[in-house]
Write a structure and sequence with these properties.
Radius of gyration of chain A: 13 Å
Number of helices of chain B: 0
Distance between the termini of chain B: 36 Å
Order of helices and strands of chain A: EEEEEEEEEEE
Structural class of chain B: mainly beta
Strand content of chain B: over 45%
Helix content of chain B: under 10%
Strand content of chain A: over 45%
Structural class of chain A: mainly beta
Order of helices and strands of chain B: EEEEEEEEEEE
Number of helices of chain A: 0
Largest interface: A-B, 27 and 32 residues
Number of strands of chain B: 11
Oligomer: heterodimer
């Protein structure tokens, strides 16, 4: 089952610009997480936001969560070429043992 | 260094030839899981394990087996691989502390499997 759906599927920007990716999900959640995947590599956890939180920051990352709309956004400010990767949202709902991933957003940052 | 390792990283095999992909973690995590990643579908969970000798099916378990005899290892077994199992496979692990509101998983580097 696919809980999270990212939008857009692909995003191409210039270095220094901000990148915004959105994630929508279907059922109530315990928390929502964002992961990054460099081409052909494993996923790396970026940030987690709990269901009772609305906004969270970590360095150049800003995540928002709107549980009434069942949506989240990931903002990367002042993007760099090294931010080029795929970004996935993943939700934890009900049992703690499963992360349900969306299909991801492919971000390309051009120098 | 805390890590999840998988072997092999790349494998090309033929239909019906049994294979095992190993996964090992050195973080003393109770929870381990296998995912497959296919274009446009994100990651889908195959099997997971809450602790030694405790395993359960994920969303796409058909055609796969797992075992958890030791805490650190969680091999994925394909008894009779088929071309539709061609995919990128990831192993992940996590501690069980802070269960409901903390579930960061640590991922291995992936195994790219091609079944001809």
């Amino acid at each position: 089952s696919q809980q999270g759906e990212e939008d857009p599927q692909a995003l191409s920007i210039q270095e220094g610009e901000n990148a915004t990716m959105n994630c929508s999900y279907k059922t109530s959640i315990n928390n929502l997480q964002w992961y990054r995947q460099n081409s052909g590599r494993g996923l790396v956890h970026l940030i987690l936001i709990r269901s009772n939180e609305r906004e969270k920051h970590s360095g150049r990352l800003r995540v928002t969560l709107d549980t009434s709309k069942k949506s989240s956004s990931l903002l990367i400010t002042a993007s760099r070429a090294a931010d080029t990767a795929s970004y996935f949202c993943a939700t934890v709902s009900g049992g703690y043992n499963k992360l349900i991933f969306g299909a991801g957003t492919r971000l390309a940052v051009h120098p | 260094e805390a890590q999840v390792t998988q072997n092999p990283r790349y494998l090309i095999t033929v239909t019906g030839k049994k294979l095992t992909v190993t996964c090992s973690q050195n973080m003393n995590h109770e929870y381990m899981s296998w995912y497959r990643q296919d274009p446009g579908l994100g990651l889908r969970q195959i099997y997971y394990s809450m602790n030694v000798e405790v395993t359960d099916k994920g969303d796409v378990p058909e055609g796969y087996k797992v075992s958890r005899k030791e805490k650190r290892n969680f091999p994925l077994i394909l008894e009779s691989p088929s071309p539709n199992q061609t995919s990128l496979y990831f192993c992940a692990s996590s501690s069980l502390s802070g269960l409901l509101n903390y579930n960061e998983q640590f991922f291995g580097p992936g195994t790219r499997l091609t079944v001809l």
